[in-house]
Amino acid sequence: MRKKIIAGNWKMNKTVADALTLVKGIQAELAGSTEVEVVVCPPFTALKSVGDVLTDSQIKLGCQNMSSENDGAYTGEISHTMLKELFVKYVILGHSERRQYYKETDFWVNKKVKKALETNLRPIVCVGEKLEEREAGNTEKVVEAQVRGSLADITAEQFENVVVAYEPVWAIGTGKTATSEQAQEVHAFIRGIIRDMVGEKAAKGLRIQYGGSMKASNAKELLSQPDIDGGLIGGAALEARSFVDIVKAGL
Ligand code: PGA
C-alpha cells in the first residue's frame, strides 16, 4: 500500500508572518494525524520560521527548487546543505513554471534530482503536457520524454525516495482540473514507464501525485483512482481550511 502524500506548493506567496499564520492553522487541524503524509513548501525566505513551527510535527518541510551544485559561485542559487540545515526533507523539481519561465530542461531537472537523492533530500519531480500538446494527441509522448529525461540513471533503490507529480500545464491555476479518468490514464502510463525503466517493485512503490486545480471538491474522486497517490496543491494550499480539507479527502 502506498501512503498518500499531499504537498502544498506555496509558490511565490506569503511573507514570513503570513506563512506562520498558515502553517499554524494547518498544524492545529492536523496535529497527530499520520495516515496521509503532509508536506508544506513555503518560499525560501519562510523556510526557517515554518520549520521551527514544525519541530516535532508530522508535517514535513519542503522547498520549491534547489541548485544542482554543492557550493561556489552560483549567484542566486540555494544548495542542498543550506536546505538540510533548515530541516527540509522534500524538494519540488522541474515544476512547469520553472520549465516555462526559467527554461529548465529535463537535463537540468535530472542533475538536480540526482543531487537531491545523493544528499538525502526527496525530490517531487513534476511532469505534464501543455494544452496544445494534449490537443495534438501528444500527451503520452511529451510525458514519457519528461519522465525518462528527468529521471534518467536513477536506480530502483533510489526510486523509493522519489515522488512524481503529474501536472497537466493546462490545469495549473486555471480552475480546469483533469477529469479523474484523464488523470488516472496518465498516472497508469507513467507507472508503466517506471516499470520499464527500473522494474515492477519500484514502479509499484512509486507515489504519483496529481496537480492542477485540485481542491476539496474534486480531491476525493481524484484520490480514489488506483494510480493517484496524492496531490501537489497550489492555489488551494494558500489557505489552511481548503488545504486541510484536501488532506482529509485523502483519508
Ligand atoms: P494549482 O497549482 O493547484 O494552483 O493549479 C498546482 C501546482 O502548480 O503545483
Could you give a quick summary of the protein structure above?
Helices cover 43% and strands 15% of the residues. It has 251 residues and is an alpha/beta fold.
Secondary structure elements and their pairing?
Layout: E1 5-9, H1 16-30, E2 37-41, H2 47-53, E3 60-63, H3 80-85, E4 90-93, H4 96-101, H5 106-118, E5 122-127, H6 131-135, H7 139-150, E6 163-166, H8 180-198, H9 200-205, E7 207-211, H10 216-223, E8 230-233, H11 240-249
Helix pairs in contact: 1-11, 5-7, 7-8, 10-11
The structure holds 2-phosphoglycolic acid.
Shape: globular
**Approximately how much helix is present in the residues?**
40-55%
CATH architecture: Alpha-Beta Barrel
Residue ranges: pLDDT <50 for 5 or more in a row? Answer: none
Bound small molecules, by name, code or SMILES, are:
2-phosphoglycolic acid
Q: Which topology does CATH recognise?
A: TIM Barrel
Structural class: alpha/beta
The order of strands across the largest sheet is 1-2-3-4-5-6-7-8
